[in-house]
Every structure is written in C-alpha cells, then in structure tokens.
UniProtKB/TrEMBL annotation, chain A:
NCBIfam families: acolac_sm, PRK11895.1
SUPFAM superfamilies, sorted: ACT-like (SSF55021)
Keyword line: Amino-acid biosynthesis, Branched-chain amino acid biosynthesis, Transferase
Protein name: Acetolactate synthase small subunit
Parts forming coiled coils: none
Gene name for this UniProt entry: ilvN
Pfam families cross-referenced by the UniProt entry: ACT_AHAS_ss (PF22629), ALS_ss_C (PF10369)
UniProtKB/TrEMBL annotation, chain B:
Domain Thiamine pyrophosphate enzyme TPP-binding residue range list: 407-553
Catalytic activity: 2 pyruvate + H(+) = (2S)-2-acetolactate + CO2
E.C. no: 2.2.1.6
Protein name (database record): Acetolactate synthase
Lineage, uppermost ranks: Bacteria, Pseudomonadati, Pseudomonadota, Alphaproteobacteria, Acetobacterales
InterPro entries referenced in this protein's UniProt entry, alphabetically: Acetolactate_synth_lsu (IPR012846), AHAS_TPP (IPR039368), DHS-like_NAD/FAD-binding_dom (IPR029035), THDP-binding (IPR029061), Thiamin_PyroP_enz_cen_dom (IPR012000), Thiamin_PyroP_enz_TPP-bd_dom (IPR012001), TPP_enz (IPR045229), TPP_enzyme_TPP-bd (IPR011766)
C-alpha cells in the first residue's frame, strides 16, 4: 500500500485502445503481474482492421492512487493509443457473454429451460440430456443464472470477460 | 559498401546494411558489442565500412554499461550490438540498469532465423519475451520491409519522453535478406507522443505555492540531467532568483553546482543532515525530475509531513506513485523550469523574504553539525579522505573530470565527497544498484571524451564483477583510472550486518583478493598500491599523470561506516550520524529490517 492514508478499494473498468501487433497483450499482462495489480477480467479483440487497432477491456480494483497508476502505466506503453477509466468517466455499459452447459433429464431439464427463458438465455445446442445456453448481460446476471443452474445440473461454463463502452455520443478515438 | 553508407536514397540493401545505414542516419558514431553466430552478417557489414566505430568489450553486460556511460556523458543514445541467446541474456542486467536510471540505449540483438524461432535452436532465447520488462520497448523484426522504420522508431522511443533502453531483435535471415531502405519518417508517431510542454495552469499553481512559501526547498533529480545542460542552467537561475535551498538526488548530482552556497548536498539515505532535515521541515517542496524513490523518502508516512508538494516529471506514471502531491506538472524539466521562471517573474505576489531568511538560519544550524566531517589521523587512510583528496587534487588540476562508480559504500562516499559543478560528469548505477557498473561505464565515457580524466571510484568487491574489461581498456588504450577503496569487505553489506544483524558478518569478507597491482600489469596497465595516508596525495597525482590505464588499490580503514544514514523504515529526522556527532538516533525497527 503506497499511502497508508488511502485504503478504500474500488473497481474500475478500463478501456485501452492499442496497436494490433504481436506481444501487446503480453505487455499489458506483464505490466499487471510485474507491478502487482489485480486483473479481474481482461478481454481483447481487433476493432478496426484498417487502422490495425485492438481494444482491451480490463476490470481491476485498487485504491484511487493505484488505479491512477494503472492508467498512467498503461498509457506510457509505446503501442497504446488511449486509456480510459470508464468507471470514473461517466455512465457506461458493461456486458459479458457466457456459454453454459447443463446436463440432466426429466423435470430438471424443464426447470433449466424455464429459468433460461426468464433470464433470456438462448439455447444454442441441445441433446436428449443436455443444453448449451448462450447468455449476454452484466456479470451479476450471469452469476445469478449460473448459480441457479448449479443444483439443476451445471456441467461447464465458458465466459468472455467484460466488454464495455461509454454511454452517449462520445467516441473513443485513437 | 562505404558508398552505400554515404547515400541514403531508397534502394535495396541487405538487412545488415540497412541497420548500419539507419544507425548512421541517427548520428551513431560508435557501438559497443561482442560478435557471435547470429550477428555475423552485421559484423561483416561493419568490417566493410568506416563510418561507425565498433568497440569490442569482454562481456555483453559491459557493452550495455559502456553505452550507458557514453549516453550519460554526452546526452546521445548509446548503442549496443550482441548476439542471440547468451549474448542477449548477458545484456539484460545492463538493460534493466538503463531502464531504472532512464538512460537512452539501443541494443541490437541477433536472433536465430525466423523459420527456427520457437524450435529451441542453438543459441536461441526468447529475447523479446525476456527483455519486455527490462526495456522501455522492444521489437522483433520479422519482415525486412519494416527493418529501417523499426530502427528509426527505436531511436525516437529511446530518447523521447522519459528515456530508456530499446531492444531490436534481428533474426539472421533478416540481416542477410535484401530489402528497401527508407529514411526516418517526418510524421509523428502513431501512438507514442509524450507531453513535454507543461500545462500553464499547473505552473501558475506551483508558482502561487512557491511564492507564499516560508520554508521552501527544491529537490532536483536525474530528469534535469536528462533534459540537457540548458535545464541545469535554468535550475541554477531559478534557485538563485528564488533564494531557495536546493538538494539533489544521487542521479541529479551535477544538476546544481556542489559548491554553490544554496546547495545542501545530496538527500536521502546517505544524504546530508541539512538536506534531509530541510526536506522534513519544509512547507513547500518543488520536486523536479526525481521520483520520490524509497532511498530518498525513507518511511513514507513520515516523509515531509507538513509540506505542500509540487512534482514536475516527464513521466505521468511517476506522479502520485509513492507520494501524493498537491500540484502535478507533466513536462520536460527544461521546459518546466523555463515556464516557472517566466511565471515567477510575471507574478506580482511578493516573496516573504524575512521568512526565507529565518529558514536559512535554521538550515545553517543543521549545517553546523558538520555531518560529513571525519578525522584523518594516523597512517590508516579513511575512505572519505581518499575521495576528498581525489576531488581536491583533480579540481586543482582543472582537468575535465568524469567520475563513475560501482555500488556500495565507496559509491556513497563518492556522492558525498566528490563535488560536481556540471551535469553529465557523474555516472553511477542509482536505481538498480549494479555492482560492476563503473568500469565499463568509464570505458564508454572515455571513448566519448578521449582527452578527459575518467575515474572509476570502486570497491574491491564490485570491481571484480566486470574486471575482464581491463582487456578492453588495454586494446583501445583507454586511460581510465580505477581508484579502489579497498577495505576487504563488501562494505555496505558489512555495515548493514553491523547495524541490523548483530555484527554477524555473513559472507561479506572479501577473501582471497587478487594482487591488484599484478592484475593491472597482467592487463598491460599500471598497478599501484597505497597503504599509508602520507603517500595518498602523491599516489593520486601519479595515477592521474600516467598516460594509460591505472588500477590504484587504496587500502582504507576496514570498519568505516557510511554516515549520515537514515536506517530503513525511519524518517528523515531520524538519521544516524557518525559516532561523536550530536543529534539523530540509533537502531532499526523490526519493520525497517524487512526493507532493503
């Protein structure tokens, strides 16, 4: 803890626009592990093929001082174009996608379907004894659905991690 | 081939020729290196030209330190060339050293051909993987069409913003293949454009605080040196016009003249009593180009508890990292100082001169402690005395003098007792604390300043960490003087063992030392050994007068400690002074023992 006066932790969802080049993810992940920052979720994908840009979304936590550090440390990486703390800079939307496999027969199967309907999860694969649901939403909604599936026959979960974007017309240009 | 190097129009060259052309276009005159299989094409191209001089070192770590010495004493980018695998891994310590001390260095590393990467080929290492956290940035060139652009970009990255080391990993097939050469682009970099000009609102806020200060202090670091000699001149001007006391970090020594009455000496763990107490008691602190390093701050929650802090740094990530500040200024130290001077002059608010005079009276009281005093009695040479005489004799001679050091007690004594009047004359491993730095760094300095006096103030343990470079001194007839303060101990380790670990001197005795005189002679240099205080001055003069390299082995008091000292985990006002001096405390808390 760099400053004993400041101990309140907060979450931050940070968007990073980077050059789409080899090693960039290793740089970002290495920065977090090397400096002892938390990563709760990290996603990355190209977002602009013409300009060779990728976007990384990182969910982290720390004191205000640590989160300011994380932003500054990311910003000084040579291939980083822009860093934004979405949590701090106004309302934003954060979403995650999950694929959830549930195995079971009879009533459990019907219950899984009913709950999936209530949560607006889509069936993307089905066999006599299993479903794969696809679900998008805020992390807590996914958590809640997965928790409900556990006693019914949850077999496997795959989640993307959080992607996020600011509300309103403002853009995130390189 | 030499014709190829002279004209840089777009034309097809081999990769090796492209690299050399790009170096030349970036003003490179000398590179430090060591050949090997993967870089043979580059060495072949080097052989066929005369524009770039190659200095053959004896170990790749030394090549990087030499490039650092070259860079720090000239303000230019230092360039290193090493082979793949062990060549690259040996360079890693030097790279981290340059990273920690913000020294612009380009390190070209050979790599196995692209089709073999990942196959555990002979002398293959994942160089970009290994050096990612050891550099400011690194590149693996897999397409010869990007080679010239990558080298140009590497120079831009190494020297822009906060400088640092950059690695370019060069697979052998890229060096042999043919591709187009292009000159450095005029367009700004796509993503890396550090801010150098300060924001005027923060400058005004800083001046408002400084004008109202009753107990101000200027704390200047290596950022002022990195910003070029003009920044040091502006620091001088600012400190004089504001009548403020000024202290320098280890990295900043020379940014403000040591003999100026407004200079309080170095601050921090082995800083002066007056500098540390002034830092502790000030009401407004202006930090320019320093980073609130743990060696400077001591215990953070007791660091300068009642001051408003202004921090000017070119690296935004240095601001609010360790110490929360009241005014943050992002910019180049020279640009910041220029803006501060202009704003200070334009600001109508008067300074409280009476309060400043009162502040100086307090400082003069602390100065009266004489924290750097020592007694040279009898025939045993005190290490402090050896450095002080070295300083006084070189100053009398008036020769341009550059000092490098290894790491440990001798380094701190050099920082305390050798006065630096100008920037770029002091090369020491500050952040990483790399034993073995001083000799190769001195080589690099001497290459850049062939007629200057270059002295490596060393310890008998540190010097052995890169002693092989005596061979390089001999080969290039570099008249570097190695001034060893030989106390037969890893002195700083011994000191900590005495103070923190009940005088249990575990493994810190320098057993089985070589005969440094015969060692020097074996490397075609002059060797001297001095054991009597009465011989010291003559020996120093003789060492300096000798036209070639010298090892002067100075036998000094074995149990001397380096004071003042802020023990780890203590605050600035809890310094340990030398025995016999009043003030300060003794002892280290258990919490402090955990710290390094």
């Amino acid at each position: 803890m760099p400053d004993s006066l400041e101990t309140t932790l907060r979450n931050a969802t940070i968007a990073v626009l980077v050059e789409n080049e080899a090693g960039i993810l290793a740089r970002v992940v290495g920065l977090f592990s090397g400096r002892g920052y938390n990563i709760e979720s990290l996603t990355v994908a190209p977002v602009d093929a013409d300009r060779r840009l990728s976007r990384i979304t990182i969910v982290t936590s720390g004191t205000d001082m640590v989160i300011e550090q994380i932003k500054a440390q990311l910003d000084r990486l040579v291939p980083v174009h822009k860093v934004s703390d979405l949590t701090l800079e106004g309302p934003h939307i954060a979403r995650e996608l999950a694929l959830i496999k549930v195995v079971g027969k009879g009533e459990a199967r019907m219950e899984a379907l009913r709950l999936a309907d209530a949560f607006r999860a889509r069936v993307v694969d089905a066999t006599i004894e299993s479903f794969v649901f696809e679900m998008t939403g805020a992390g807590e909604k996914l958590d809640a659905f997965i928790a409900l599936m556990r006693p019914i026959g949850l077999a496997e979960v795959s989640r993307t991690g959080v992607v996020a974007i600011a509300r309103g017309p403002g853009g995130f240009e390189a | 081939m030499s014709a190829t190097l002279q004209t840089a129009e777009t034309r097809t060259m081999t990769g090796a020729e492209i690299v050399l052309q790009a170096l030349k276009d970036n003003g490179v005159e000398v590179i430090f290196g060591y050949p090997g299989g993967a870089v043979l094409p580059l060495y072949d191209a080097l052989f066929q030209q005369n524009a770039i001089r190659h200095i053959l070192v004896r170990h790749e770590q030394a090549a990087v330190h030499a490039a650092e010495g070259y860079a720090r004493s000239t303000g230019k980018v230092g360039v290193v060339l090493v082979t793949s695998g062990p060549g690259a891994t040996n360079a890693v310590t030097g790279l981290v050293d340059a990273l920690m001390d913000s020294i612009p260095v380009i390190c070209l590393t050979g790599q196995v051909p692209t089709h073999l990467i990942g196959n555990d080929a002979f002398q293959e290492a994942d160089t970009t993987g290994i050096t990612r956290p050891a550099t400011k940035h690194n590149y693996l060139v897999k397409d010869i069409r990007k080679l010239a652009g990558t080298v140009h970009e590497a120079f831009y990255v190494a020297k822009s913003g906060r400088p640092g080391p950059v690695v370019i990993d060069l697979p052998k097939d890229i060096l042999i293949g043919k591709g187009p050469y292009s000159e450095a682009p005029q367009a700004p970099h796509r993503s890396y454009r550090p801010q150098t000009e300060p924001d005027m609102a923060s400058i005004r806020a800083a001046v408002r605080l400084l004008k109202g200060a009753r107990r101000p202090i200027v704390y200047a670091g290596g950022g002022v040196i990195n910003a070029g000699p003009e920044a040091s001149r502006l620091l001088n001007e600012f400190v004089h016009m504001t009548r403020m006391p000024c202290t320098n970090t280890l990295m900043g020594l020379g940014a403000f003249p040591a003999e100026d009455p407004q200079f309080l000496g170095m601050l921090g763990m082995h800083g002066t009593y007056e500098a540390n107490l002034a830092m502790h008691g000030c009401d407004v602190m202006l930090n320019i180009g320093a980073r609130f390093d743990d060696r400077v701050t001591g215990r953070l929650n007791a660091f300068s508890p009642n001051s408003k802090k202004i921090h000017a740094d070119i690296d935004p990530s240095s601001i609010n990292k360790n110490v929360k500040v009241d005014v943050a200024i992002v910019g180049d130290a020279g640009a910041v100082l220029k803006a501060l001077i202009e704003c200070w002059q334009a600001d109508e608010q008067p300074q409280d001169r009476a309060a400043i005079a009162e502040w100086w009276r307090a400082i003069d009281g602390w100065r009266g402690t004489g924290c750097l005093q020592y007694r040279q009695e009898g025939s045993i040479i005190k290490p402090q005395h050896a450095v002080k005489r070295l300083y006084e004799i070189t100053r009398e001679m008036g020769r341009e003098t550059f000092i490098t050091t290894e790491v440990g007690q001798h380094q701190m004594w050099a920082a305390q007792y050798f006065g630096f009047q100008k920037p770029n004359r002091w090369m020491t491993s500050g952040g990483l604390g790399t034993m073995g730095y001083g000799l190769p760094a001195a080589m690099g300095v001497q290459i850049a300043h062939p007629d200057a006096l270059v002295i490596d103030i060393a310890g008998e343990a540190s010097i052995l960490m890169n002693i092989q470079e005596m061979g390089t001194l001999a080969q290039y007839r570099l008249p570097v003087k190695v001034f060893i303060l030989n106390n037969e101990y890893m002195g700083m380790v011994r000191q900590w063992q005495e103070l923190l670990h009940g005088s249990r001197y575990s493994e810190s005795y320098s057993e089985a030392l070589p005969d440094f005189v015969r060692l020097a002679e074996a490397f075609h240099a002059r060797g001297m050994r001095v054991t009597e205080a009465s011989q010291l001055d003559d020996a120093i003069r003789e060492m300096i007068a000798h036209p070639g390299p010298v090892i002067a082995d100075i036998a000094v008091a074995k149990d001397e400690n380096c004071f003042p000292m802020i023990p780890s985990g203590a605050a600035h006002n809890e310094m340990i002074l030398a025995p016999g001096q009043k003030g300060g405390v003794t002892g280290v808390t258990d919490e402090g023992k955990v710290l390094v």
